[in-house]
Prior knowledge:
The complex is a heterodimer of chains A (about 325) and B (about 200). With about 325 residues, chain A is α+β, with helices and mostly antiparallel strands. Chain A folds into three domains: about 5-85, no CATH class; about 90-245, Jelly Rolls (Sandwich); about 250-320, Phage tail protein beta-alpha-beta fold. Chain A is built from ten helices and 17 strands. Chain A has helices at about 5-10, 10-30, 35-45, 50-65, 75-85, 85-105, 240-245, 260-270, 280-285, 295-305, and strands spanning about 110, 115-120, 125-130, 135-140, 145-150, 150-165, 175-180, 180-195, 200-210, 215-220, 225-230, 230-235, 255-260, 275-280, 285-295, 310-315, 320. In chain A, helix 3 crosses helix 4. Chain B is elongated, with a radius of gyration of 20 Å. With about 200 residues, chain B is mostly helical. Chain B has two domains: about 15-110, no CATH class; about 125-190, Orthogonal Bundle (Arc Repressor Mutant, subunit A). Chain B has helices at about 20-30, 35-45, 55-70, 75-95, 105-110, 125-135, 140-150, 155-165, 165-185. Chains A and B meet through helix 1, helix 2, helix 3, helix 4 and helix 6 of A and helix 1, helix 3, helix 6, helix 7 and helix 8 of B.
Amino acid sequence: MNGGEQIMVSSRAMEIEAQAATWLRRKAFWDWTANEQAELDAWLREASAHRVAFWRLNAAITRTERLSALRGAEGDEQTKKKNRFLPFVIRASAVLAIVCVASFASLSYYRNSLTESYQTPIGGREVINLGDGSRVELNTDTVLRTNVHAGVRSAELVRGEAYFQIRHDTAHPFVVEADGHRVIDLGTEFLVRDDLGHLEVTLVEGRARIDAKAGDSAVLKPGDVATVTAGKLSVTQKQQAVLANQLGWRSGVLIFKYTTLADAASEFNRYNSKKLVIADQASARRTIVGTFPVDDVTAFTDVVQDVMRLHVSNRGDEIVISR
Amino acid sequence: MAETPETDRKNAGENPADLLAPEVEAWFVHEVLPLEAALMQFLEHNWRNRNDIADLRQDVYERVCDAAQKEIPASAKAFVFRVARNLLIDRVRKEHVVPIEAMADLDALEVAIDMPGPEHNVIARDELRRLQAALDRLPPRCREALVLGRIEGLTGRQIAQRMSVTEQAVSIHIDHAIRALANVLYGDPADIRRKP
């Protein structure tokens, strides 16, 4: 529903809302005298219909006060303080473009007959179009070797995390190897993450089979997350919303929904060379809600400091968070 | 700010000072308005004539606030939906109209609207992003007038000069912007989280 359309409908409520908007506009945008305030108070006392309409619009316009922080930088101290929140909103979209350009520039691959190698640096992100119409997105600090030519379609995830969108071909199933385990697509989009001996495969769409090194195997359906830790294969289900958060990196952001600071910090540390360290257990267990550019640790520490009221200090290569 | 009981036709007999009580307004803004998206969906599901929806919403708010004037309800969510439900039943009886679905469906719907309560711990950053998104959805001229006023701090007169339009035109843009902003911030069904 479009806000504009709704306004066009003429009704008792809309007439009152129009009057409330006029009062509010005069109060917020034009000179306002004590006399006018008295008139407004009288109008508000006239009917609860007037009050709720005015309160509702006033609440919306009051929320825009936060935007006043966008005002010129030469403001007083308070304006400056508010400003710290703003660059993030504006920067967010620019960051994505920069990340793409930077990682394309730093992409290093060497041809070795039919095998190609791709590598992203810490904080990098890369999209690879394979010759067969499939597409792979590499996350930070990832190494992938691909082997796609007539009759053979395979890739090896040496380390890191990659999102595979596979063009299905029954005659030539796509195989991803990681740590000696194999993921075989059966018409698929999936995410493979290799964390030093801990392999995680998330199936987003379609079907795939995972064959663990030890010999056990499982067929995955959308939302399934297969993990192999110490050679043991297990499968759990994740909700769509959780999956979406997990895939935030594909658009250059980390999405936290009641994520502990410990987990949030280790996510950030995957993308940045300056590492976050949480000094005490109590702080590590605090949870956070929010979306941050993967490379903007400062945006994160600002929230930790200003909203969560924790102590943030810079120590060489580390940023320490404590009570 | 003289109290003038005679202007208080609807609530004669009560202390008129209470009518502008900040507690009731605060309760309405922080507990009731965040439910608007769910309320709108509830009304749209249960009322055939879409042209009535704005009036129905307004009636719900009036009843809810009249009650809050006497005592703030313990659970805003339960209270708002009970009032909405009763209002629809009243309208059906009074106007002899047939609602879209049999009213028996109401209980099921009430459960289906499984929206978490207002998030009190929304991070400032999220709020800014939400505002930015809301502004993006306003018509361009309305947004421009609102932004000049709220962000650059210009008066209506200065906005008119900056936009090279009459003050009257600015008034129209701003009135429209205020109303559209409230709809986007509170009534936008895209915000609602429902069970699949």
